[in-house]
Design a protein that fits this description.
With 106 residues, the chain is an all-alpha fold. The protein has 2 domains: 31 residues, no CATH class; 54 residues. The protein has 6 helices and no strands. Helix 2 packs across helix 3 and helix 5 crosses helix 6. The protein is flat, with a radius of gyration of 17 Å. The model has no long low-confidence stretch (mean pLDDT 83).
């Protein structure tokens, strides 16, 4: 049975331990983490980028560095940089909800 998001959060960095606790494979743990939006490929050092580099990229982009130059610097594609800058990949995980209220009197 799939654990709740709260039950699996402590195991973000301990997939092997989680697999033993929940009696499933590590791949299943990874799938669960992804389904709750708390894991993305490469965020734990497997790819060329990680959360720290994503923060650097966003800061450099805000300071005026072009996406093309950032792609060359980090040896990734322009599309990868674009996804980082637009917060599509390497999103910050937070326990807080973001709520938007739109008032439309009509």
């Amino acid at each position: 049975m799939k654990p709740s998001k709260e039950d699996i959060i402590p195991y973000i960095h301990k997939r092997k331990e989680a697999a033993q606790k929940f009696e499933v494979s590590e791949k299943t743990i990874l799938r669960w983490l992804k389904s709750y939006g708390i894991y993305e490929h490469g965020q734990y050092g497997r790819g060329k980028l990680n959360f720290e580099k994503a923060k650097e990229i966003r800061n450099k982009y805000k300071d005026g560095t072009s996406m093309k130059k950032l792609a060359q610097e980090y040896k990734v594609t322009f599309a990868t940089i674009s996804r980082v800058v637009r917060y599509i990949t390497y999103k910050e995980f937070t326990e807080e909800a973001i709520i938007s209220v739109i008032y439309n009197p009509h």
